[in-house]
Amino acid sequence: MTPSPTLYTVREIADTLRIHSRTAYRLIQEGKIRGIKVGSQWRVPESSLLEYIESGLQAPRSKEKDEKTGSKQLKLPI
Fold first, then answer.
1. pLDDT at 1 > cutoff 90
2. Are 66 and 52 in contact (CB under 8 A)?
3. Higher-confidence position of 41 and 72
4. Helices marked H in 1-78 — which ranges?
5. 57: left (phi over 0), alpha (psi -120 to 50) or beta
6. CB–CB of 47/5 below 8 Å?
7. CA–CA separation, 52 vs 2, rounded Å?
8. What is the chain's percent helix, strand, coil content, to nearest 5?
9. What's the CA gap between 8 and 1, in Å, rounded?
10. DSSP letters along 19-30, please?
11. Which of 17, 24, 56, 65 suits a disulfide with 76, CB 3.0-4.6 Å?
């Protein structure tokens, strides 16, 4: 028997990414994070969340350094 995929709620996605739940909801609605609608609620497979995070890690990095810390920052496509 195949194990069922882990599905996350909008709130769990927001908590994981440390963003507001409305921002997470918008990312899902816009298709930036792939999700499925179950009734009136969104669910996001773990693989979709990992793809979104990976896309932020693979994005071209800016050569500009943060003026305050002197370090480079990765940005997720929000």
1. no
2. no
3. 41
4. 10-17, 21-29, 46-58
5. alpha
6. yes
7. 24
8. 40, 15, 50
9. 22
10. S-HHHHHHHHHT
11. 56
The answer to whether residues 65 and 73 touch, using CB atoms and an 8 Å cutoff, is: no
* pLDDT tens digits, one per residue of 3-47: 888 999 999 999 999 999 999 999 999 999 999 999 999 999 999
* Residue 71 amino acid letter: S
Distance from C-alpha of 48 to C-alpha of 34, rounded to nearest angstrom: 6
**Beta strands 7-8; 41-45: pairing state:** antiparallel
Statement: residue 67 has pLDDT above 90: no
Q: What is the token pair recorded at 72?
A: 């480079």
Distance, in Å, from the CA atom of 49 to the CA atom of 35, rounded to the nearest integer, reads: 9
